[in-house]
Structures are given as structure tokens and as C-alpha cells.
Amino acid sequence: MRFDVVTLFPEALSPYLAASILGRAQQAGLVEVHLHQLRDYSTDPHRKVDDRPFGGGPGMVLSCQPVVDAVEAIEKLDPRPALRVLTTPQGRRFDQQAAREISQAQRVLILCGHYEGFDERIVEILRPVEISLGDFVLTGGELAALAIIDSAARLLPGVLGCGESAGDESFCGGLLEYPQYTRPQNYRGLSVPSVLLSGHHGEVEKWRRQAAAERTRARRPDLAPESDTGAARSPRARAGGRRIGAAIGVVAPWESRMEAAAARGVAPAVR
Q1: Cα(5)–Cα(22) distance, rounded to whole angstroms?
Q2: Residue 139 belongs to what H/E stretch?
């Protein structure tokens, strides 16, 4: 799987991408990550990539030319079609389901937002999937890009080293993960649940399922199944925590963007 990241600050991403699981995955050839400096694609003699917003207001807006030219040039570097992703507070709220969908693409091209965001015509021309980490604003999209790469890459076969690891975590199966324990057996008067020491795998699995359900009800009731809560789940919960960035009808919903990507031969429009 290949990731291309267009950013003004590639040096901010490099250390994280080279470390730990992502670093080993790249060394093993399971994942490729290529960082691209947006200024390299500017036709401005001073490598300028932004300008003042029409209508006035604070800050600067990323201009069409460098962003569109960057995407078109970078996509030519590899024959695999790219799923285009744009990081923005207005996008779909990122979750485990989104990570699973993205992990099915052969190639992902991520545009990191900055300043006051992107000229809207970039969205209209490139038709990217727009993604937000949550209802808060960051200085730039680099942290969001790292979250997308990390969460999607770790779902690929071989990346975690243990085939069961990614399928036994929070949000897999709709629940938070059960509590985990390691040595020592007793610490400051707190003991490991005896069932985990019993060696009875069936009882251990039963305990873990129950503990996961109890933790989910206590901490994230919006994720708990109806049978656990006794109440109908919210539309957001039924949609798996999805948040569609369709403010004032300008931004097309996630599903239509995935369908547009599928039409370009990028990835299936997974529901």
C-alpha cells in the first residue's frame, strides 16, 4: 500500500513515520510513504502557495494552482490509482470504519490543510474524501495525516506481526476493548482477575466479552448495542460513528466521494 502526503512541513512527519511499527512495515515493503513539499509545485517565483481570501477576513487560503498541480504530478509517479483524502475540520469524523475503508485502497494521497484551509475550487476539481479527526481545529493537517496512515496501515496483513492483533482491539465488533493485565499478579493490593489465571480459554473469552460490553456501556453508551442499553441507538451510532461533512450542501457526503473514487478505479465504495 502506498501513501503520498502533500504538506508544507514534511519534516514534521518524518520522525514518526520512521519509528516503531510503521518504520518496520516500510522496511519490510508492506507500506510505502512518500512525503511531498507543496512549495515544490508552485509556479510562483517565491514558491508561494497561499493568498488572501476574497471578501476579506483573517489568514491566508491555500491556492488552487500548487495543490491541483501537485496532485496531478504525484499521481503520475505510480500507476496505481490514488484515493484522494483532504484533511479538514469540515470533513467526515474519522473512525475505525473509515480506517478499514481506506486500508482497502492500493494507494492513498493525503492533502494536509493549513492556514484558513483550501480554496473551495480545489475540492470541486479534485473531489477528495474529506476527513476530520474530530470537532476541534489543529494548526495543520499533518497530525490528521499521521493518524490516517497509522490506523489504516496497521490493518494490513503482516504489519502488526500478529494476525489477530488488529481484530482484537477497541471498536472491532462495535465495542471497546476489554481490560488488559500483565505481570506482576498483584500490585499495591490490586490483583489480576482470577479467571485470567485459570487457563480455561472458554471462560477467559466469556469474561473478556462481558468486560468489553460493560466498559462500552459505561464509557461509550453511544457504541453499545441496543440489547445492552435497552434503548434505540442514535443515528450517529447506527452509522458507526460517522459524521458527514455536508455543511450547507457544499461538501458532498462521504459515500458519494467513495463512489466517485470507485468510478476512477481507486477502491470499492465500501459501506
Answers
A1: 15
A2: none
As annotated, the residues of the chain forming the CATH 1.10.1270.20 domain(s) are 172-238
Could you give the CA distance from residue 64 to residue 57 in angstroms, rounded to a whole number?
Answer: 19
Whole-model pTM: value is: 0.78
Listed in order, the ranges of the chain carrying CATH 3.40.1280.10 are: 2-162+241-263
The residues, ordered by sequence, that sit 6+ positions from 52 with a Cβ below 8 Å of its Cβ are: 60, 61
Q: pLDDT of the chain along its 271 residues, tens only?
A: 999 999 999 999 999 999 999 999 999 999 999 999 999 999 999 999 999 999 999 999 999 999 999 999 999 999 999 999 999 999 999 999 999 999 999 999 999 999 899 999 999 999 999 999 999 999 999 999 999 999 999 999 999 976 545 555 555 668 899 999 999 999 999 999 999 999 999 999 999 999 999 999 999 998 877 554 434 444 443 443 333 233 223 234 455 555 666 666 665 433 3
CATH of domain 172-238: 1.10.1270.20
- DSSP SS3 for 116: coil
User: What is the Cα–Cα distance from 35 to 145, expressed in whole angstroms?
Assistant: 11
CA 7/CA 138 separation, integer angstroms: 14
- Which is nearest to 177 in space by CA: 146, 229, 223? 223
Residue found by looking up cell 493537517 in the block: 141
Q: How many CA atoms lie within 13 A of 39 on its CB side?
A: 8
**CA 212 to the chain's CA centroid:** 23
What architecture is the 2-162+241-263 domain classified under in CATH? 3-Layer(aba) Sandwich (3.40)
The rounded distance, in Å, linking the Cα atoms of 169 and 23 is 21
